[in-house]
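Notes to self after the Tuesday call (sharing in case useful).
The group wants a holo model before anyone commits to mutagenesis around the pocket. I volunteered. Ligand is flavin mononucleotide. Logging inputs and output together so the record is complete.
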Amino acid sequence: MSSHAPMPAAERLAEPMRSRWSPSVFDARHRLTADQLGDVIEAARWAPSWGNIQPWAFLVLERDGAGHDVLLDHLSRGNRSWVPQASAVVLAAAKVAADPDDATDKGVKGEAESCYDLGQAAAHLTLQATALGLAVHQFGGFDKDAVATALGVPSHYRLLTGIALGRHGDPDRADDDTAAREQRERRRRPAETFVHAGAWGRAWSPATTGSTR
Ligand SMILES: Cc1cc2nc3c(=O)[nH]c(=O)nc-3n(C[C@H](O)[C@H](O)[C@H](O)COP(=O)(O)O)c2cc1C
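Result:
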């Protein structure tokens, strides 16, 4: 499954970061085991969070299971060709306010902080899935409001993404567009364009290490 990973500059990374990439061809016959699903959720559960509030929730939609059809009806055009084949989609939601029906609920730090923490939990889930040899591809292209309403997500949670999980499929059995998505070169901005050294605007590079002391 790793024809696109590791990328040359990723060779020094530890596993499973080195092998992670976002495949678009999933094996539509594959099913996740209870242990696999349990392990990826456990990884999310142990993610760090601000004040240990753990302001996240996940909704597991197994292919052919309850709720899955609802998601498929609301996928963006670009995601319709590949999301349905994944063995399961884990929808990820950030808790953005206190439960209005629970007087003991202390609420959250703030919406931005909750989204930060959810992203971190999703990253943990993604890396655990990669370590298990699963294909995993996050996606935001779906009508979140419609899915949240149809599946009963309460209004103090904000549905943000789906995480498709499964086994990498055979690109030769996929349609041309979907197969081609996997051939796209994986690019990243150079670190110098987004890492600053000592003060904002002073480009960082590994060579600046020690020079700002
Ligand atoms: C929050 C989020 C939303 C994304 N939405 C989509 C999406 O709707 N459709 C899609 O094909 N990929 C989506 N992706 C996957 C990214 O396009 C992908 O991670 C990026 O191109 C880098 O490729 P890589 O994961 O193989 O390194 C999303 C990723 C994240 C983190």
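Two things stood out.
The chain has five helices and four strands.
The chain has a mean pLDDT of 94.
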